[in-house]
Amino acid sequence: MNPATIPSLPADAEPTHPCIRCGRPGVPADAGLCELCNPLELSQPSATQMHGIAAVGIIAFVAVLAVVARVALAGTGPFTGSVTNVAAAPGGLSVSLSVTNNGSNASATTCTLTQAKPTVNAPAAAIQTPRIGAGETIAVTADVTQFGAKAIDLLVSCGIP
C-alpha cells in the first residue's frame, strides 16, 4: 500500500456519542444533546444532576405509596384470636379458631399457628381468615398438616405481631 493512499485521522478528533434525546450520532463527549435538540446551545445538565432528579423522583414515589398504604390500612385491626378446638383429621389436624376484629374497619387477616411448647425448628401454619366486620368475632376452621396427626396444644397469633 502506498503511504499516500492511507487515510490519516484528523489530529483534533475527539470522542463522540449519540444524542441522549434523539440518538443522532456525533455529539461531543462534553455535551448530552445534539445541535437539533439543543439549538440555542443552552447549558446542559450534568450526569449528577440527572441522577439526582431520578433519585428524588423515586423517593417521592415511595413516599406517596406509603401515604396511600397508610390511608388504605387505617382502622384495620388489631385482631385477637384463640384456639377453640384441635382434633385429629385425615392427614393432619382440624383446628378451630375464634378471631375478633377490634378495629373500626372490616378486613381479613392471617393467623399463625404454633405449638404451645415450641421446639427447635418448630413448625408453624398460616390461616387466612375471611373478611371480618369491625368489632365482630368469627369462627374459622382449617385443616393443617404441619403438626402431624396427633392433637396437640396450639397457640394462635393474628394480624401484625
Question: What features would you highlight for this structure?
Answer:
2 domains, 3-stranded antiparallel β-sheet, 8 strands, elongated
What do you see in this structure?
There is one protein chain. The protein is α+β, with helices and mostly antiparallel strands and 161 residues long. It has 2 domains: 58 residues, no CATH class; 80 residues, Immunoglobulin-like. It is 17% helix and 30% strand. The protein is built from 1 helix and 8 strands; from the N terminus they run ββαββββββ. The strands form 3 sheets. It has a 3-stranded antiparallel β-sheet with strand order 3-4-7, with no helix packed on it. The longest helix is centred in the middle third of the chain and has 27 residues. The chain is elongated, with a radius of gyration of 33 Å. The mean pLDDT is 85.
Topology:
Layout: E1 16-17, E2 27-28, H1 47-73, E3 79-89, E4 92-101, E5 110-115, E6 124-128, E7 137-144, E8 154-158
Antiparallel strand pairs: 1-2, 3-4, 4-7, 5-6, 5-8
